[in-house]
Design goal:
By secondary structure, this protein is mainly alpha-helical. It has two helices and no strands. Helix 1 packs across helix 2. The radius of gyration is 48 Å and the shape is rod-shaped.
Length: 136
């Protein structure tokens, strides 16, 4: 059965260590013996913990390595973004010019469409007039 040390037992041990008699020493050993029994188990578990910590450390080194690579790539990305940011105002300026010219082209195309429509209507009227003349 596992023995848990109580607060009273701890105080008792402290009192004994400060100068209690032989009978007191036996009491202290009664408390310490069960603890001593568990020590090999504790050591065993600590070795396991140490083993797992070594693995964790190994993986953390790998993670650190990958993080350095990521950081390197992020610096490159940042560099390219600064270039893009620098050129964007120029690009926007050129796009406004292009948009302006496209509006002109569109206006001219609409005017040409209107002229074509007027010509088609005129041709239709002339053809209808010729047909009427032939009927008479």
């Amino acid at each position: 059965m596992e023995h848990v040390i109580t607060r009273d037992e701890v105080m008792e041990i402290e009192r004994i260590l400060e100068g209690g008699g032989d009978g007191e020493m036996a009491k202290m050993m009664a408390v310490l013996d069960p603890i001593q029994h568990h020590l090999p188990h504790v050591q065993h578990h600590l070795r396991h913990v140490q083993h797992h910590l070594c693995h964790v450390q190994y993986h953390l080194r790998h993670v650190q390595h990958h993080l350095r690579h990521i950081q390197h790539h992020l610096c490159h990305i940042q560099h390219h973004l600064r270039h893009i940011q620098h050129h964007l105002p120029h690009v926007q300026h050129h796009l406004r010019h292009i948009q302006h010219h496209l509006r002109h082209i569109q206006d001219e195309a609409e005017m040409a469409d209107d002229e074509d429509k007027e010509i088609e209507d005129k041709v239709e009227e002339d053809e209808m007039g010729e047909i009427e003349d032939e009927d008479m």
